[in-house]
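ok so i was messing around last nite and threw this chain in just to see what happens. nothing serious, just curious
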Amino acid sequence: MRFGVPLHGNRVAPRSAYAESLLVVTMHGGHIISRRIETMRGDGGLSLVGVINDLRIDILVCGGISRSLRNALLSNGVEVVENITGTVDEILEEILRGNLLPPQSVRPEMISAASAAEHRVITLPGMTGASPEIPGVLGPRRLDTIDCINCRDRVCLRGEDCIALEDRPAVDDREFLAMIDSSLDISAESERQLCRLTELVYYCLDMNYREIGIAFCMDLIEPAEILTGLLRRFFDVHPVCCKIGGKRESDALGDGAAAQGRARIICNPVLQAETLNRIGTEFNVIVGLCIGMDSIFTQLSRAPVTTLFVKDKSLANNPIGAVYSDYYLKEAAASLATAR
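result:
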């Protein structure tokens, strides 16, 4: 019996289709008689299916796997044991114990031809030249008149174009298209509801990022530390705190702040961004930066930026909760009235 395990570094790859290598383990009589690692191109499911077929793998032990890839393997007679995590040594131990055998209820002959042929077609509106005939009750709109909350027909949700042809910006940047494709691929995971953290790992693997920056607030140093440890299983991670440089408020804001005795250490998103720019990170993650500070960091970062954790001192770092609370909505309205 021959096992295949898609790997990222020394661990089971979170996304099988983009594994760096494949651990091949041959078992006989309850013993491992051979093991080797095959290099993978990591360029998608078809490559993985081809390698597995060539190596005559009987059982694939993997992390995340798409339904179409799993069905393709099952239809070729390859059993699949999915959602497995661990290091190479841990996986080898579990194989020896017989804990990674597939459930007998799932057999290749149970997978229909229709399921095996399942595939997803991605279309990117506005990128391949949409028809100038734009249906919709209100007709095509110019970008400077768009109000998607007050829109009543929402033809875009039916796959129809709501933007005037002459006003549509061209999107032909290859990096942007790759980012869109990866994001669509992850959001289309229908079998599992992925948390945002898992989506982050999958996205970075899909984009082949190696150098990841974390710009974090000291108020969230504990989750930032946990996040750094997790991401370092897969990437080179560079965490930079908001207080980097140790600049005092009086030094940054001049005599007025000094006269008021404001000597606290302030956040420095400029230096956070410059530090990660110098390191050469390929993707940066914001963890809890204050409003305004996050904007500065995002504007100055050379690498793309996403926000993973948001700081909210009243709502346990869950700011979306405010829009579902009468109390906090009234508080926000009262602050607006006071400001006026």
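not much to say yet. Residues 105-138 have pLDDT under 50 and may be disordered.
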